[in-house]
Amino acid sequence: MLLLQTIMVILVVIALWVARRDVASVFWPKFIEERQFQHLTYAVMLCLFLLWSAQAGIKPGLNIHFLALTTLTLMYGWKVAFLLTIPVSLILALVGNLNWSALADYLALSCLLPIIISHIVFTASYRWLPRNIFVFIFVAGFINGALTGSLHLLAISLYHLGIQNHTWNDIQNNYLIFLPLLAFPEALLNGMAVTLLSVFQPQWLRAFSDKDYIYNHYHND
Questions:
Q1: Which domain of life is it from (predicted)?
Q2: Torsion, Cα of 35, 87, 53, 152 (10° steps)
Q3: Are 152 and 52 in contact (CB under 8 A)?
Q4: pTM over 0.85
Q5: How far apart are CA 76 and CA 204, in angstroms?
Q6: In angstroms, rounded to a whole number, what is the distance separating the alpha carbons of residues 65 and 89?
Q7: How far apart are CA 26 and CA 23, in angstroms?
Q8: Helices 144-162 & 179-200 angle (0-180, nearest 10)
């Protein structure tokens, strides 16, 4: 039990160490200089706080809520996205929606892991699939959201099984049973968000490029 919790802390520290340069050189200067970017970032964190506050669960620690971390990753990149989840998680702990003792576990399993999965799926789609806006929306948005949400629930299940908080029957009957019900709404939430951003505010998506996803076929010709 203590070993797994220690690993969670180490993973969080490593992720912050890796993210420090991107945050310092890309995110922070833009955040300081552009008021509109500040308002966008504050609004995004508020939305995450409200979304994560609306959680449900039958067993302690086995809580279910929408993540929206696929959209966050596509907007900011995985390094900055993880940084932004930290103040949101701290506020959740301050208002009593998250136990302080579970903060590191939450950051590692419910923030860092889904963000890394989202980044991997996007990177794979960028490298190996045709680069057009439909692939970006349906693979990097819809499918990515469903896969990330499903793997998140599975990781939480394995973690609680590993620290012996719950038996496998309890986890299967009170947590994993909701996986099919959560996958589609998570996909829809992220897919619709990515669709709207791609059409109306593509500059808010760090992972999106007109050159790659809209005009790419002209360059190939």
A1: Bacteria
A2: 110
A3: no
A4: yes
A5: 8
A6: 13
A7: 6
A8: 140
Identify the residue with better confidence: 195 or 163: 195
Q: Which residue has the higher pLDDT, 181 or 210?
A: 181
Average pLDDT over residues 171-184: 89
Phi, psi of 96 (to 5 degrees): 90, 5
- If one counts every other C-beta atom within 10 angstroms of the C-beta of residue 131, the result is 17
Q: Which of 60, 59, 157 is nearest to 101 (CA)?
A: 60
Residue 202 sits at φ, ψ, to 5 deg, of -65, -25
Alpha-carbon dihedral 178, 74, 207, 115, rounded to 10 degrees = -80
Lookup: tokens for 13: 């520290």
Structure tokens at 173: 């009957």
The β-bridge partners of 64 are 56
Distances (CA, A) of 34 to 28, 29, 30, 200: 10, 8, 6, 19
Q: What is the CA radius of gyration of the chain?
A: 18
